[in-house]
Amino acid sequence: MHLVDSHCHLDRVDLSAYDGSFDAMLASAKAEGIEHMLCVSIDLESYPAMLKLVDDHPEVSVSVGVHPNDHDRHEPTVEELVELAAHPKNVAIGETGLDYFRSERESCDWQRERFRTHIRAANACQKPLIIHTRDAREDTIRILQEEHAEEAGGVMHCFTETWEMAQQAMELGFYISFSGIVTFKNAEELRDVAMKVPIERMLIETDSPYLAPTPYRGKPNEPKYVGRVAETIAELRGIDVDELATITRDNFYNLFTTARAV
């Protein structure tokens, strides 16, 4: 198979099974058919070390952004994100978005302003957005619309929301990405969405080191397990897994157009 892990955090993957060797972990992924990985930023404090870790690996691209979960992080400006995104390995802005799971909506003005900053940066540098959204459906779509996020496009990563939200995101030109959650027994509604999303608008991911798919649930996740996501969705849709792997790989390169040149 020719697979792409469209969202992982390689600087946080558990390397104990590889005697601490990052190269051995990547080799294990390659042996499972993973040809490219997008290592996603969650804050600017760890970004330089993340970039250094993957800099010599052409099969890894990066993004730059600040996750909505943590308030006590360096708050980027549009100009700062645009400058960092100019690095040749950088293919996207994010992850960014809104997460009201642990916070009241009324106390999240800072999240919404940070989200707008990332969208403006993506539009300025014309690189796609990587969107994290949890318990914030209406505000996520509203802000994407108000900031004209369709100018940059992007992906709703680790999607766990409704078919209605998926449709709204796709109307803005966004892709929908599914993680190992789609393999969980209690994810019937998500599997229904995975059957409805047009395959040409679909990506797959691990979100490593989190959310390991069945049968590895509860264990550290890593890019080599993205094939389980592909197998599950292919079975749901009644298509060959190689076909799904190839189409989602091509979708990745269509969205993250500079990834081929890394």
Helix content: 25-40%
Largest sheet: 8 strands, parallel
Fold-level CATH name: TIM Barrel
CATH architecture descriptor text: Alpha-Beta Barrel
The CATH homologous superfamily is termed Metal-dependent hydrolases
The run of helices and strands is EHEHEHEHEHEHEHEHH
Count of distinct structural domains: 1
- Mean pLDDT equals 96
- Helix and strand content put the structural class at alpha/beta
Radius of gyration: 17 Å
Strand adjacency order, main sheet: 1-2-3-4-5-6-7-8
CATH class identity: Alpha Beta
Tell me the number of helical segments per DSSP (H or I, 4 or more residues long).
9
Tally of extended strands? 8
Q: What's the shape?
A: globular
**N-C termini distance:** 21 Å
Low-pLDDT windows of residues: none
Assess the beta-strand content as a share of residues: 15-25%
